[in-house]
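Budget justification, computational time. The allocation requested in the original proposal was used primarily to generate structure tokens for proteins on the priority list. As evidence of use, we reproduce two of the resulting records. The first is shown immediately below.
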Amino acid sequence: MIEKVENKGDNLFDPVASKLERFDKGVAIRKITPRSTHQEWEPSEIRKDPIDILIETSIGRIESLLPIRYTRMMESPFAFYRGAAAIMAADLSQTPNTGIDLQLCGDCHLMNFGGFATPERKLVFDINDFDETFPGPWEWDLKRLATSFVIAGRWRKFPNKTCKEFAWNVADSYKRHMLEYSKLSALQIWYADIDLAELIERGEDEDIKSFQHKRIKKAGEFTAHEKEFAKMTYQEGSRARIKDDPPLIYHPIGDEGKRILLDAEAIHNKYLTTLSDEKKVLLSRYNLHDIAIKVVGVGSVGTLCGISLLMSATGEPIFLQFKEARKSVLEENVKAKSKYTHQGERIVRGQKLMQSASDMFLGWTNDDNNKFFYIRQLRDAKVKPVIEIMKAKNMNDYAKACGWALARAHARTGDPSVLSGYMGKSDEFANAISRFSISYANQNDLDYNKLLAAVKEGRLPISAEV
């Protein structure tokens, strides 16, 4: 059994101390929390049952959608991991940490990274999901990300040694790029981004490079809204309507359905009032044509999420996505309390802190029943990772890219000099993270089997999802 190390680090960036002094502060923290301690994982004697945690996180969700949530998590240990951020957050709270807090993604796994277009129409690579963002120990994001590569690698049938190499490359890339950011000014870090096309060119697999460049070209040929409009809508008289594709996209029916759609329309209208003047002028050129519920992701299934279709007078569409914003799974596992009472604001503020560029329509609102939401464009030239076709060398390249993107995000709200001083230039830290990742992937397998048993026992409902 490991012993939890008390937080003794300094969470505050010191603008007076020199980079060298802050680097030395990071080195000194090794004496309190040696780098090798990050390899440790052993479940606590008071560890909560993972199925109980899943059931607790389902409270308040749309009950009719819960079977879809559990069915998706049953698909594989990797699918389970994607929906089990709350379980890992509770476990990470029992592991050693340096006491250095910064803004976390909170659900930092490899499918929550990808390419997207900035408001300036530049394609960048970055983190793209912030539902769980919250201040906390910087190591937590890195451990969740590295472990996701082990679990995904096993799902792809790569040998354990290769999966461990993926995790090692996440941590090593994070360490190397954090050292680079430690040499920049705060303003230079804030301007930094990762160009998607340049990132792809760094790879050595010509087939994958060609495949990815074709995807980039396709993403830029038409606006994402035009592509979605062709796939997702039909004409009903003078109005465009979103096609139903139950159980994943649908218009609720009956009295409850009418209430949900009225709530969704009220959410949309309230959101419009929160926008800056220039965004209000832009969206005033569009009228709301339709709203539908859209089931998304794994961890978000059961929360109230949907899409709004807006049309201009000349027929150009915009799709906006609204997502229910719930309390971060990190909050009850860290000492800090949220500075935001509005969960939608928490997500938007955290996203803007961590991302190099955020969606121009990103905003937050709430309904009349004290439910919180955030809103963004449905898609904007997104280029998602396709891990199903990746060879080992492609996974290693992707691991390095994700480690880089996480380092850039953490450097914005943390102190890269302190973090670099702590990690150092040796392989000790990356070795520890890779060992932790193997151990926690084993734990995830055990928890996944508990999910299967709970379904068999009837504790969790499942569906015949299309």
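The second record produced under the same allocation is shown here.
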Amino acid sequence: MSNTAQSAASTRIASLLDANSFVEIGGQITARSTDFNLSAKETPSDGVITGYGVIDGSLVYVYSQDATVLNGTVGEMHAKKIARLYDFAMKTGAPVIGLIDCAGMRLQEATDALNGFGEIYMQQTKASGVIPQITGIFGTCGGGMAMIPALTDFTLMEEKKAKLFVNSPNAIEGNEISKCDTSAAEYQAKEAGLVDFKGSEEDVLAQIRALVTMLPANNEDDMSYEECTDDLNRVCKDLANCAGDTSIALSQISDNNVFFEVKADYAKDMVCGFIKLNGSTVGAVANRTEIYDAEGNLTETMDAVLSARGARKAADFVKFCDAFNIPVLTLTNVTGFKATKCSEANMAKAVAELTYAFADATVPKVNVIVGKAYGSAYLAMNSKSIGADMVYAWPNAEIGMMDAKLAAKIMYADSDAATINEKAAEYATLQSSVESAARRGYVDTIIEAEDTRKYVIGAFEMLYTKREDRPSKKHGTV
């Protein structure tokens, strides 16, 4: 490495990559500008270490900002090093990992630094959907620098020292950092939904390693497959009890119970993450009504409804999976839409984005209805009508327009209670039962909950060679 070898920036690279695998690129580069006496200052590697190495044997490109050099600020050569790293990554088809610790734009270089930011944005945009992009934030990431994690696929953040903001908390009218630290990992993970994982520096680096092993190297070559050591026909005996907390259900059906959840603190009513099925990575999306802690205690309950935040969270995740040819599995349990004034302002657009994401995705798509599936909320959750290749349902599933008793009350508004109950039972049998949906072809197979793993594995194996043509167009507009 360069003469920044003992810095936190280089230590992070060493901790992230396989031992002794890092090869530095551009280690001798320094700042080119001489304005404002900049030439009198030492600028080793111009404040960013760039190069390549391997994670679990897979090639990755890494840049790590060095806050000991001009506070890690981005100048002309700093930006060019990152942009050049993207060139290498695009040519070889490997992920880019950015380790951020930066005070922002280098004031001494002004327009050169500003142009450098634009060059990085351009490289990120061209790489989007071609190679995975991952950001780890360990120090300051503010102003224009905040666009960099937002342009990547996954963002992980150190939970105590790291700061992520466009406007600093004290610059927001009516706010100060003591009242609401909008730059903190907690806020960015729970409220903004930009951060996928927060934890200690060691945890963040470990999670980046785990994420890389789950993802393909690029949008053409699937390097994420590994040999399955789990029983493909394994019976998941208690799976029916996990219909509420579907994060547990997903880990139950995954090979060796592997589940990498993303944005776990944001829109908790929707679970998104990666599982392994027969050694292959599968993207999973699931409605959730309960949350249990590690000791098995129920900590939170939610209605079985779609929220605007949950819909957008799932839509973004499905788009990523489709871009990188990762099959998608859904576990569906939804009765309608969240009914609050705040949600209503964003609901239609958010659900439209989710519907579009599923309908537009051409990867193999499998849906398992584990509870209720009512109305347009169900349609948005990877229903057969918007393109699910295979739809399974557990025996207790309910599929229809709405709750049977509510439907009976609407249809027989002036009737007595006995009539309402009679018609509700009739409606449940004729219109809302899983058998009724299966007879119409909206459900392919009714399966026992404990057999879910073997059925979804079989479905994805059958769909492995799926090809689907769509109308020729530049891109959609939703």
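A brief technical remark on that second record: The CA atoms of residues 181 and 187 lie 7 Å apart.
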